[in-house]
Design a protein that fits this description.
Helix content: 25-40%
Number of domains: 1
CATH topology: Rossmann fold
Largest sheet: 7 strands, parallel
Shape: globular
CATH class: Alpha Beta
Number of helices: 11
């Protein structure tokens, strides 16, 4: 088992949860732009670097004593990412594509195992929920620039490394995080203000409970797992059905179907200036389930974040 881990993206929505949950289980160090855990004892060392600087990043990876690297770092705002479409010299491409490739090269040189967090957006959204062995395929016009940059990152990692672990997630959500909202909490906040937009009822998704992502990472690390794994709700849904479950659970709405408005992802994808969303997205979780880790359903995930919110 790898006891020493260096984390990129420790201040991110997903990465911060892993640090909070397993900072006392593993010896964690972190690289990145900011440390949100000063004096909390969950990170043994924080080194401030620019991960889009190749030399700085690779030197930090090669010199650290960790046996394993987890890369949570990414530019994830899909519409903001779209503003840099095809800009291979832009921040999005550097963060999402080049940095993971540079990390993979440094892991190869120093004998470290790379765990890369990826997404269902690496596919074109025409055949989901996707299995782990689904062909990655090239970038297409159906894909967002965010998805394309993550697709290219996966391809670069496979080219650089014989052994790696890619964990794909989608629509991550958790009970609380002060630095960033997420899929579920955004819906709840907008509904409470009477500003909730129509939710797609023709889009297939399988939202990832962040708690499950952290637990699955620990599960895979302890087994020295390599390959591609999906961590998402084990049942697929639509944003509309997910929203209905949310407001029913959090606000006690008895008939949410009559309250929420339905929208169409196919109509949305014809909107100029917006990143295309996958129509048939989502992730199948059979590989991690066969190993013994069973992700929660989206209903169970919503019940879990509600339970946690009631404790605060």
């Amino acid at each position: 088992m790898a006891h020493r881990i260096v984390v990129l993206g420790s201040s991110s929505l997903v990465g911060s949860h892993f640090v909070e949950t397993f900072g006392h289980t593993y010896e964690l160090s972190a690289l990145g732009r900011r440390n949100i855990f000063p004096n909390q004892g969950v990170i043994s060392e924080f080194r401030r670097i620019d991960i889009t600087n190749k030399d700085e990043l690779q030197h930090a990876i090669r010199c650290c004593e960790a046996e394993l690297v987890i890369n949570f770092a990414a530019e994830t705002d899909v519409d903001k990412c779209e503003l840099e479409t095809q800009a291979v010299g832009g921040r999005v491409f550097a963060t999402n594509t080049l940095a993971p490739q540079w990390v993979a090269e440094a892991c190869w040189d120093s004998g470290k195992l790379l765990y890369q967090i990826s997404t269902d957006a690496v596919f074109d959204g025409s055949a989901g929920p996707y299995k782990e062995d689904h062909d990655l395929g090239p970038c297409t016009t159906r894909m967002s620039w965010y998805g394309c940059t993550k697709n290219l990152a996966e391809a670069g990692i496979r080219k650089s490394l014989d052994s790696y672990c890619i964990i794909r997630i989608t629509h991550p959500y958790r009970a609380a995080f002060e630095f960033k909202t997420d899929f579920a909490r955004n819906i709840l906040a907008l509904y409470s203000r009477g500003q909730l937009y129509p939710l797609f009822d023709d889009q297939v998704i399988s939202p990832s409970l962040v708690d499950d992502v952290s637990l699955a990472l620990d599960f895979l690390i302890r087994r020295n797992a390599t390959g591609i794994f999906h961590v998402a709700s084990r049942d697929s849904t639509t944003p509309f059905a997910f929203g209905c479950k949310l407001i029913s659970t959090f606000f006690g709405v008895r008939n949410p179907v009559s309250v929420l408005r339905k929208g169409s992802v196919q109509e949305f994808n014809r909107t100029a200036g917006k990143a295309p969303r996958p129509v048939k997205g989502g992730l199948g979780t059979s590989r991690v389930a066969k190993m013994g880790f069973i992700p929660r359903t989206f209903e169970e995930g919503i019940e879990e974040i509600h339970r946690q919110s009631m404790m605060t």
